[in-house]
Design a protein that fits this description.
CATH class of the largest domain: Alpha Beta
Low-confidence stretches: none
Shape: globular
Largest sheet: 6 strands, parallel
CATH topology of the largest domain: Rossmann fold
Order of helices and strands: EHHHEHHEHEEHEHEHEHHEHEHEHEHHH
Structural class: alpha/beta
Mean pLDDT: 94
Strand order of the largest sheet: 2-1-3-4-5-6
Number of helices: 17
CATH architecture of the largest domain: 3-Layer(aba) Sandwich
Distance between the termini: 19 Å
Number of strands: 12
Strand content: 5-15%
Oligomer: single chain
Length: 409
């Protein structure tokens, strides 16, 4: 059978990759695709080898990469060459004629088009903890999610769903080598200030930064400029002035014509600074792919804080990225954590913020113990939490769905 994995990469990651390798944009399509595989960002290239081991012909298809699309158009010139990224992906998928598509994207029109392909029997979707792809659900044969909370919600909506954890790609180890380890604690992740997605995470990080620990916070939030911070402060002031002035009868329509006049609307949320100033001293530039893995491997401890929308179960990628490179994982307690790792032997678990800071201090005071726990965590991950294990689970779902389809026919 032919297996297609359909996904995309963050624009910030792509900008970082192509900036670090300026000539890459001029390389052929296949060379750029191989660069994405080798850099090990997210799931890039992770499914191909394990699915091939199980007997599939496997291939990845990436959307929303303008430079990769440009290379494809250079090599497939002609008046019929599509310009849109989704149209390019659809043409490539159609030529590959997959039996099974693993759809890790939110493009509903592309999904509908894939469902119409004659060769495609199954389309399996993916959701994380954020549940951002509800429009796609009715067009999928099965939804997989790392978060048990999401599985419960999806099933309650009447859709078939199963839980499948993230995993570690062992190819990372040979590509990063053995970086020198420093007795420092690192955190890697986003700090989204809109809504409540990362509010608890941010409050905890503020207190950790204030504790005076050797702590590095690697995040895209580092890139916000003083100009962006000043503009955000201006909007905060304008919001107060506009809302006060809007109380005068008949004045609101005039305010709407002023710069940022939308701030006068009652439903408009109060502006926030793009990054909390109290985190500034500990912020470091974001790391992606192999750069991120190298930075994790250089740290003696990696702190993990789950997003606010997954309050009960351990489910994010950092669990396996950290242990995979033998760095000691310090993570928040979740009810299923003991099913994944043995606390105090393979990882360290904290109960609350005070406990977290206390254990951070202890681990930096006992770096040899952190190394011992990191080594045990790596052994567990390489045994139980690689993409080879997850591919086996995916294969079982595919086989079951195929049997069910044949019975219905």
């Amino acid at each position: 059978m032919r297996f297609a994995y359909v996904s995309s990469n963050y624009a910030s990651y792509l900008a970082s990759l192509y900036a670090a390798h300026p000539v890459l944009a001029l390389e052929p399509f296949a060379a750029q695709e191989q660069a994405l595989y080798r850099h090990c960002f997210g799931w890039n290239g992770c499914w191909i080898e394990p699915m091939q081991t199980l007997g599939y012909e496997a291939r990845d298809f990436y959307l929303d990469n303008p430079l990769l699309d440009q290379a494809w158009r250079r090599e497939h010139g002609g008046t019929s060459t599509p310009a849109d990224s989704s149209a390019i992906a659809l043409q490539r998928i159609q030529e590959f004629a997959p039996d099974v598509v693993f759809f890790d994207h939110g493009d509903l029109e592309l999904l509908r088009a894939i469902r119409q392909l004659p060769a495609t029997s199954l389309v399996i979707g993916w959701e994380g903890g954020g549940l951002s792809r509800q429009a796609c659900w009715p067009h999928l044969d099965l939804l997989l999610s790392c978060a048990p909370e999401s599985v419960i919600t999806i099933r309650a909506a009447g859709m078939p769903a199963e839980q499948m954890h993230h995993a570690f790609n062992p190819a990372v180890l040979e590509r990063i080598g053995r970086p020198e380890r420093h007795n420092r604690i690192a955190f890697f992740g986003q700090l989204v200030r809109g809504g409540d997605f990362h509010m608890r995470r941010e409050m905890n990080l503020v207190q950790i930064c204030a504790a005076g620990l050797p702590f590095d916070l690697y995040s895209p939030s580092y890139s916000f400029t003083p100009g962006q911070m000043s503009l955000a402060r201006l909007k905060m002031v304008l919001r107060i002035l506009y809302r006060t002035a809007a109380r005068v009868p008949g004045l609101r329509p005039r305010l709407a014509r002023l710069p940022y006049g939308e701030l006068a609307r009652p439903e408009e949320p109060f502006p926030r600074l793009p990054v909390n100033p109290r985190l500034r001293a500990n912020l470091r530039p974001a790391r992606f792919g192999l750069d991120m893995y190298s930075s994790i491997a250089q740290s003696s401890v990696c702190l993990n804080i789950h997003a606010d929308n997954t309050p009960d179960y351990a489910s994010n990628m950092r669990l396996f990225e950290t242990t995979g490179v033998a760095t000691c994982l310090l993570t928040d307690r979740r009810r299923n954590i003991g099913e994944l790792f043995e606390p105090d032997k393979e990882i360290v678990v904290y109960e609350n913020l005070d406990d977290c800071i206390e254990k951070m201090r202890w681990l930096t005071d006992h770096p040899e113990k952190a190394r011992e726990i990191g080594a045990a965590g790596q052994a567990r991950t390489l045994r139980d939490h690689t993409f080879a294990q997850r591919a086996g689970q995916l294969h079982e779902h595919i086989q079951r769905l195929m049997r069910e389809k044949s019975v219905r026919l």
